[in-house]
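> example.struct
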């Protein structure tokens, strides 16, 4: 766990992730990631204190997993670069993970979704059933998509707060 885990969780709590318009925007990004990297799965996830919650997943119907079983937990530890695991079955952190074994996933690449204050809330990641290599250009494209996902989350948050502010002003004028 990060030394700033308490602050990261406090930052995470400031966001509203339960909105269909946000999920539609993130669905487009995960589809772009899956198409570009030619992977069967791409997802945008947030990491809470006990779970990985999926905001968008292209290629599967997944909602959450226990944090201790999540590869993305390791991605948020380094909030400045991509985490790439070319072959999950060769990595001692994951080669006995029952969820990964059951799903048949072998490749993982994830990039943290980092707030303007520097807190990694989650990841944009791609998965494949086959081991693969990941080039510097691939890392750059994944970074761009992750930053776009975070921009969508920040924009959604800004608009939600602005709508709440306008709504409260209108309610005050009516009384």
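> example.seq
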């Amino acid at each position: 766990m990060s030394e700033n885990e308490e602050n990261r969780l406090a930052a995470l709590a400031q966001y509203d992730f339960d909105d269909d318009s946000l999920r539609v925007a993130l669905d487009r990004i995960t589809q772009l990631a899956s198409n570009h990297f030619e992977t069967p799965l791409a997802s945008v996830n947030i990491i809470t204190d006990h779970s990985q919650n999926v905001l968008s997943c292209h290629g599967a119907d997944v909602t959450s997993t226990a944090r201790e079983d999540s590869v993305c937990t390791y991605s948020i530890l380094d909030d400045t670069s991509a985490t790439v695991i070319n072959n999950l079955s060769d990595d001692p952190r994951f080669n006995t993970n029952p969820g990964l074994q059951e799903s048949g996933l072998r490749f993982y690449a994830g990039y943290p979704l980092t707030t303007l204050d520097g807190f990694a809330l989650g990841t944009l990641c791609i998965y494949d059933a086959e081991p693969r290599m990941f080039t510097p250009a691939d890392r750059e494209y994944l970074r761009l998509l992750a930053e776009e996902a975070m921009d969508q989350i920040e924009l959604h948050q800004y608009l939600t707060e602005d709508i709440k502010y306008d709504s409260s002003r209108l309610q005050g004028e009516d009384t």
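> remarks
The CA atoms of residues 116 and 154 lie 9 Å apart.
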